[in-house]
Amino acid sequence: MTSKGSLAVGEYTRISVEIARKYPQSVLGFVSTTELSSHSPSATRDEDFVVFTTGVNMSSKGDALGQQYQTPTTAMAGGSDFLIAGRGIYAAADPVSAVQEYQKAGWEAYERRVGSASG
């Protein structure tokens, strides 16, 4: 999904979202880099799918393998509910400090998004 050239885009993604909307009792959410309305805008008012965002990294925008990262701030602003940050944590010199930084950045970004939605 976050690798350059991913096939999970366009019509594939739109149809996946439409199927989930047809069977919401069977689908909790999606692994996605953006909110669902950007893929298929026919959301209902009570729609509440969870969005898990992979490829979150605070120190890199990409790598030689085509991985494309976004920050906790951009992921949350894009509609993410849960951030999945791998390499930015496990490859850090101090993984515990890195986890704390990601947690803080993600929470602050979430609060900004929720605050702006209710304000």
Automatic annotation (TrEMBL):
EC number(s) from the headed UniProt entry: 4.1.1.23
Domain Orotidine 5'-phosphate decarboxylase: 1-102
Biological pathway: Pyrimidine metabolism; UMP biosynthesis via de novo pathway; UMP from orotate: step 2/2
GO biological process assignments: 'de novo' pyrimidine nucleobase biosynthetic process; 'de novo' UMP biosynthetic process
Protein name: Orotidine 5'-phosphate decarboxylase
One Gene Ontology MF term: orotidine-5'-phosphate decarboxylase activity
Pfam name, any one: OMPdecase
Membrane-spanning ranges: none
Originating organism: Cladophialophora immunda
Alphabetic keyword roster: Decarboxylase, Lyase, Pyrimidine biosynthesis
GO-annotated cellular components: cytosol
Keyword RNA-binding among UniProt keywords: no
Keyword Lyase: yes
PANTHER family: OROTIDINE 5'-PHOSPHATE DECARBOXYLASE
